[in-house]
Every structure is written in structure tokens, then in C-alpha cells.
Amino acid sequence: MERAGPQDVAEQTLDGGNVNAVVRVGDTVRRSAGPWTPTVHALLAWVRARGVTCLPAPLGRDDEGREVLGWVPGDVVGWPAPAWLWDARTRAQAGATLRAVHDATVGFDLAGAVWRSPAHAPAEVVCLNDVAPYNMVFDGTELVGLIDVDMASPGPRAWDLAYLAYRLCGWCEDTPAPDDAAPAERLADLLAAYGADAAPTVDDVLGTMVVRLHDLADWTDAHARTTGRPQLLEHAAMYRRDAERVAAGRA
């Protein structure tokens, strides 16, 4: 893997970073690398070479061994969320963008790949595994990028759609949506934008959402222990409460 040039610009610590310390240096982002970094950078190069440039450009590592990515200009949604985040137009952009990314990952060579997150069957595409408003970059109200892709791994399309729907369609307890539409109506918009020829069914997405939330709760519990951050335990408890509500709604 190539090396980025020497650092000659002051570092700016970026918000977020619940898993990694993330800094901006000029027009680059730098974060801790791991055994998965060569695979993720190869994936980014593969997707971008297919014309899907909403993902960051992979730029190798710096002299400190950190991965270097291109900076994606724009703003990430904060909380409380702006009203336009809940618009049908935002769901349409999100669904179409995720479909483009998923389709561009088809054919990526999985032989010898090292992933940070577990793979899930069936491996229809490479999932980003954390597609949510806090990893979506907007220019005004225009979705222009998806970031924080180091958790990517192979899986079914429903795996990414389930978490995006959880965060963008009104099922998440800590990001209450307005009452102008039911979560199921928002999900229908999201799947329509993704494309009926490849989108999973509503029931598949909701069933996957329950599994994902329990999986995420277990991971968050473990992360809280290994990082000494007990405040994360409440996040895990919320994921389990939300999973129970989604499951009850499907019954």
C-alpha cells in the first residue's frame, strides 16, 4: 500500500469516533488502521473505479501508520436532526445511493479478504454495516457521500437496508421522527428508491432489523467492557428495547 505524504497541516479532531480516533489533516482524514485496512481500501478503489464516488478515496497510510482517506466535503447531520432529514426526498436519495454502492461492490474479489466485521450469508454484496445519518454527508439537503466504511463486510442487501431503515424511518428510540408518516410508510419509500428489482421485502427488512439490533447490542456491550466506557451499556439496552418493539409490531 502506498504511503501518504508527510503531514504539514495541523490536525483537527473530528466529532464522533466511537470506535476510532479520527482527525482531519488538510483534505484528508486519518484514523487508526488495522488488518482489514488493505481490504477496505481495495474495496473503495474498486467501487470508485466503477463510477460510484460517494465513498472516500483511499490514499494509503501516513508516517504514523494511520489510514488516509480523502475528505468528503459537506456536513454530517447532527442531533436534534433537521426537519428535512425526514423528508421523502432524503429517503429517496439514501435508497438510491445505497443501491449504487451495493451494485458497485458486486464482483469484488473476496479471496484473501480480511474484514473487521463478520460476514453474513448470503453474501449478495459488500455491506457498509453502518449506513446511518451520522455517516451521511450532505451539501445542503443533497446527499453527496457515505463515510466510515471500515466496518464493511460481505452480506445480504437487507443487512444494510435494515440498519438504514432503523435510523432513517423512525424506529430508533433516541432519534424520534415526526408523526407525518408511519415508519412502515417511510420504509416503503426507502425500498422503492433502492429498486424493486433488488430490494428485499418489508418483512425481510424488519426481520433482519431485529437480528441486527440484537447483534449490535451484544457488540456494544463488549465494546463498553473493552474500552471502559460503561455509558455505552445504555445504548445496548436501547437497541434491545427497539428490537422488541419491532418484533412485536411484526407479530
Structure commentary:
The chain is α+β, with helices and mostly antiparallel strands. The protein folds into 2 domains: 11-70; 75-250, Alpha-Beta Complex (Aminoglycoside 3'-phosphotransferase, Chain: A, domain 2). Helix content is 40%, strand content 14%. It contains 6 helices and 10 strands, in the order βββαβββαββββαααα. A 5-stranded antiparallel beta sheet has the order 1-2-3-5-4, covered by helices on one side. A 3-stranded antiparallel beta sheet has the order 6-8-9, with helices on one face. Helix 5 packs antiparallel against helix 6 (232-250). Residues 1-7 have low confidence and may be disordered. InterPro entries: Aminoglycoside_PTrfase (IPR002575), Kinase-like_dom_sf (IPR011009). One of its GO terms (molecular function) is kinase activity. It comes from Cellulomonas iranensis. Pfam families: APH. Keywords: Kinase, Transferase.
Summed over residues and divided by their number, the pLDDT gives a mean of 93
CATH class category name of the largest domain: Alpha Beta
Strands, total number: 10
Structural class: alpha+beta
> Helical percent range?
25-40%
Largest sheet: 5 strands, antiparallel
Low-confidence stretches: 1-7
Domains counted in the coordinates: how many? Answer: 2
Q: Any idea what the CATH superfamily of the largest domain is called?
A: Aminoglycoside phosphotransferase (APH), C-terminal lobe
Keywords: Kinase, Transferase
Organism: Cellulomonas iranensis
Protein name: Aminoglycoside phosphotransferase (APT) family kinase protein
InterPro entries: Aminoglycoside_PTrfase, Kinase-like_dom_sf
